[in-house]
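Please check this chain.
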Amino acid sequence: MIHLKLQQSGEHVNYKRVERLYALEKLHIRRRRRKKIPVADRQPLVRPGQANEVWSMDFVFDRAASGRTIKSLVIVDDATHESVAIVPEHTIGGDHLTRILDGISSQRGTPAVIRTDNGPEFTSKAMLTWAHRKGVGLRLIEPGKPNQNAYVESFNGRFRDECLNEHWFVSLAHARTVIEAWRLEYNNERPKRSLGGRTPAQYAKQLAARPFTMPENSKSSRY
């Protein structure tokens, strides 16, 4: 990513040199240990062709300095890999969730489909009523199979490793400020090899302008 960002800024530096300096300065982020999933259990996801076709949603939990839980609603656009929103709250119930979705949809538009796990907020009467009223299809993954929601699960790993694990939040307001800054940096400044070296925001604009064929080595089916 650092090599891509240097190229983005006009610096033409040898990849091996960047890699050597990266290791020398110990810039790597400690990654969480991920449970190995047998190959037979993997279910490939087809990436949508346009923004707002499919959103993936999940909750990620952390704690403030006071010990109170911080519950972040994470929404990812499967087509563009954009972080549509990260909404930290102490609690989020079904009615609160639909109000959040109304606010996001008023600015970005309503998705055709939302993919989630079977959490009580996502299967609540308020959420089902909202989806029916908006004409949004709800797709629930099978219990115990987070790999069926792989786009948001992959994003959650980056969010935890690079943001939550790197900061100690003194309050909910502090968490909101730090998390939103990280989200904007992720969308607008971070080039992704899986998007042909573009940032999610750049790729979204190109996708909206015309269909774009990913290069063969881009691993476009991966997040």
Remarks:
- Residues 172-188 form the longest helix (17 residues).
- The two ends are 14 Å apart (CA to CA).
